[in-house]
Amino acid sequence: MLTFFKAQVASLAASAVDYVVTIVLVQLTGTSPMLVSLASVEGAISGGLVNFSISRFWVFQGGQHRTRTQLMRYLMIWTGSVLLNATGMYLLTYFTLLNYAISKIFVSVLVGMLYNYYLQKKFVFK
Fold first, then answer.
1. Distances in Å between the alpha carbon of 71 and those of 34, 37, 65, 75, 115?
2. Cα dist. 44→16, 17, 76, 95 in Å?
3. pLDDT tens figures, 27-75
4. What is the C-alpha to C-alpha distance for residues 113 and 8, in angstroms, rounded to an integer?
5. How far apart (Å, rounded) are the C-alpha atoms in residues 125 and 74?
6. In this structure, are residues 111 and 47 in contact, taking their beta carbons and an 8 Å threshold?
7. CA distance 52 to 113
8. Where do runs of H (alpha helix) occur along the chain?
9. Burial class of residue 5 in the structure, from the number of CB atoms within 10 Å of its CB (0-12 exposed, 13-18 middle, 19+ buried)
């Protein structure tokens, strides 16, 4: 249970970076569904770097394992996460006309709990 809690803290820190980058980019470029999706990808890249670092050393104590192996595994899972987040944001902002920030929160929580945590624990940092 402690690992799950620590993973959520790491996820919140990464999400904060992700959201700030996304919001700044949307404010600079516009709110069309395509631009929102691209801003989401850029935010995810920034948040992913933060999440990998915190998860590797604090959440899963993976510092003793090879960085390259973990990074390659993380990139595989992260790519799926980015695709799920960008697609989910696009669909929610396009079909429901929800504000992009609300869409991002909803989709990222769903993807984070159902996809990211489990695969990081069982595959990336095992």
1. 28, 24, 11, 6, 17
2. 10, 8, 14, 22
3. 999 888 889 888 988 988 999 999 999 999 899 887 677 889 999 999 9
4. 9
5. 8
6. no
7. 16
8. 2-29, 33-54, 67-95, 100-111, 117-119
9. exposed
Any idea which residue has 């993976």 for tokens?
62
- Say what the pTM is: 0.77
Joined together, the tokens standing for residue 43 give 């935010």
Distance CA 54, CA 48 (A): 10
**Token pair 């850029």: residue:** 42
Angle 100-111/67-95 helices, nearest 10 degrees?
140
Give the residue among 84, 102, 124, 125 at the shortest CA–CA distance from 31: 102
